[in-house]
Amino acid sequence: MVDTSDRVTVRIPPELIEKLKGIQEAKGSPTISDTIREALEQYIELHLPPQHVRKVVVELSRQDNSRLEAFVRDGNSVSVDDAVRSAVREYIRGRLEPYPPARPARREGGALAAEGAPPP
Question: How far apart are CA 38 and CA 35, in angstroms?
Fold first, then answer.
C-alpha cells in the first residue's frame, strides 16, 4: 500500500482524546486518526469556504442565540448556522423582490457597459 499522506505529530489533552473516542464510536470510524482527519476536513471547510461563498460573521445576543438553539432542538432546522442562513436568504429574497434581476454587462466599443445604461 502506497502512503500518500504526511505524518503529523500532535499532542492532545486526555479530555479531548476521550471526546474524540466517543465520536469515533458513535460514527463507527475504524480509527481515531480517521475521526481526527474528518474533523480537520470539516474545520478547513468551515474556515476556507469555496471562492463563490463569502463568510459573514453575525453576533447575536445570548437571548437570541438561546432562542435559535431551542428552535433547532425542536427540529425546525438542522443547526443554528443553517437556521440563520435560511432566515437571511428569505429576508434578502423578500427585500429584493421589487427589483428586477441585474442584467449582464456587455461590451460597447471596447468599454464595459451595463445593458440599458446610457452610452459614456
Answer: 5
